[in-house]
């Protein structure tokens, strides 16, 4: 039964974490002190993302590639040890012959089917993506795409060049007043704790975590300035609000013992994508039509690039575990280069690896978000996010917590099936096929 399956995998997850914690702690100890040296600046692993987004230049990012290559080669044995022990426990103690078999049993996902679907979608969008991305990088960096690396991608996709349009005079926390349109006073919402002030001691990795659903939910982020902060805040609010509005009457296995985070990620993408939508930019942030057009074009191309990165990551990770060759990062570097256009180093693979094929969870959730957004727009109009009814619909959905898996949630709420149709139409509609973005 679902109840037994969820309970088993929740307990198994805790057991696995306990068994591998010595290896994980050793790796994290080394990672905590690992730092790249770029032009006299010491950049710790936890700070690479904001450094690339806000403080880097082309030459500095070239140096960072060399520095991280050396660091990852040194740290790789520690990462391999962790995974070797983890996989041995799954096989010897629980009978899972492969890692994908374990993940399929836990999440009830046909991974091979998604391999086929994603390859088709990547092929459908390849020409459009590479052409538009070539235009963007030439305009922004003055370099051809084939000469750029993953750190250049982080800089570009941080949308820092558009921060001149961002209303910095508005404190980040005040953007949460938007949710009053849905009858939600976020700043005084019982059970929700916000830690969104900058601190040099924090990681740049934002997160929301539920100590107890729905009574004790925390959202933590370390703002760096600009559009990336607003997107990040609303993404994490999608997680946090869905937990905070979960019914207290649900049993633990309906709210706490979920095997996939795909439904919560769908809410997160839905709220994140509100922030750079034309109605929000015009009505909430008072931007001009020209500014809105520029932001929308870049935002959509950014999303396609990130989607293709996640797809490439999933394909590489699925192949890596299928071949049981975790030490070989060549497929990872090859597939990421092919599908994003940016170069990746083979030795960085294990440090770009999220457990349980989480990259695919993102992709499924993103496709689901596009369909939900289409349905809300069709029902409530293009400014649906400002309608009180939208909040009522979401709160009714959130009330059911994690009772349903994502596909079941779609079926019960009459949302159709989860596929790439709606997200593909979004890309086709909004990504320019010719000309400059900021003409």
What would your notes on this structure say?
60% of the residues lie in helices and 5% in strands. The protein is mainly alpha-helical. It has a single domain, classed as Neurolysin, domain 3, CATH 1.10.1370. It has a three-stranded mixed sheet, with helices on one face. The chain has a two-stranded antiparallel ribbon with strand order 1-2. Strand 1 and strand 2 (41-44) form a beta hairpin. The protein is globular and about 55 Å long.
Tell me the number of structural domains: 1
The helix-and-strand class reads: mainly alpha
The neighbouring-strand order within the major sheet is 3-5-4
Give the percentage of residues in beta strands: 5-15%
In the CATH scheme, what's the topology name? Neurolysin, domain 3
Count all strands and give the number.
5
Question: What is the CA-atom radius of gyration, in angstroms?
Answer: 21 Å
Structure at a glance:
By secondary structure, the chain is mostly helical. Helices cover 60% and strands 5% of the residues.
Highlighted features:
439 residues; mainly alpha; Neurolysin, domain 3; three-stranded mixed sheet; two-stranded antiparallel ribbon; 16 helices; 5 strands
Topology of this protein?
Layout: H1 2-33, E1 35-38, E2 41-44, H2 48-55, H3 58-94, H4 99-107, H5 111-141, H6 150-157, E3 192-195, E4 207-212, E5 216-220, H7 227-244, H8 252-255, H9 262-274, H10 278-284, H11 289-322, H12 330-340, H13 358-380, H14 388-399, H15 406-412, H16 421-430
Helix pairs in contact: 1-3, 2-6, 5-11, 7-9, 7-14, 9-13, 11-12, 11-13, 13-16
């Amino acid at each position: 039964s679902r109840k037994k399956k969820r309970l088993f995998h929740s307990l198994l997850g805790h057991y696995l974490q306990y068994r591998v914690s010595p290896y994980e702690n050793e790796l994290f100890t080394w990672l905590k002190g690992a730092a790249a040296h770029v032009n006299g600046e010491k950049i710790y692993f936890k700070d690479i993302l904001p450094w690339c987004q806000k403080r880097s230049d082309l030459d500095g990012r070239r140096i960072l590639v060399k520095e991280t290559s050396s660091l990852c080669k040194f740290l790789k044995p520690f990462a391999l040890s962790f995974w070797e022990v983890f996989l041995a426990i799954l096989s010897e103690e629980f009978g899972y012959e492969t890692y994908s078999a374990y993940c399929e049993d836990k999440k009830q996902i046909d991974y091979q089917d998604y391999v086929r679907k994603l390859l088709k979608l990547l092929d459908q969008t390849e020409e459009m993506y590479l052409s538009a991305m070539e235009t963007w990088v030439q305009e922004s960096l003055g370099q051809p795409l084939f000469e750029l690396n993953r750190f250049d991608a982080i800089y570009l996709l941080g949308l820092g060049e558009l921060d001149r349009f961002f209303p910095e005079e508005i404190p980040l926390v005040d953007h949460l007043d938007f949710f009053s349109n849905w009858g939600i006073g976020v700043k005084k919402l019982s059970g929700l704790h916000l830690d969104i002030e900058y601190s040099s001691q924090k990681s740049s990795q934002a997160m929301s975590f539920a100590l107890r659903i729905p009574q004790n939910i925390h959202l933590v982020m370390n703002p760096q300035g600009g559009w990336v902060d607003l997107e990040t805040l609303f993404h994490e609010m999608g997680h946090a609000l869905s937990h905070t509005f979960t019914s207290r009457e649900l049993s633990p296995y309906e709210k706490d013992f979920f095997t996939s985070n795909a439904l919560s990620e769908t809410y997160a993408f839905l709220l994140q994508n509100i922030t750079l939508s034309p109605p929000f930019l015009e009505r909430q942030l008072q931007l001009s039509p020209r500014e809105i057009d520029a932001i929308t074009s870049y935002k959509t191309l950014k999303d396609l690039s990130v989607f293709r990165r996640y797809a490439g990551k999933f394909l590489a990770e699925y192949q890596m575990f299928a071949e049981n060759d975790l030490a070989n990062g060549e497929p990872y570097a090859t597939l990421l280069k092919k599908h994003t256009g940016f170069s990746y180093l083979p030795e960085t693979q294990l440090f770009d690896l999220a457990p349980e094929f989480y990259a695919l969870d993102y992709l499924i959730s993103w496709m689901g978000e596009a369909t939900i957004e289409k349905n809300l727009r069709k029902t409530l109009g293009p400014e649906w996010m400002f309608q009180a009814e939208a909040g009522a619909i979401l709160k009714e959905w959130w009330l059911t917590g994690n009772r349903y898996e994502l596909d079941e949630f779609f079926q019960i709420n009459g949302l159709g099936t989860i596929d790439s149709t709606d997200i593909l139409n979004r890309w086709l509609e909004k990504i320019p096929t010719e000309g400059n973005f900021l003409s």
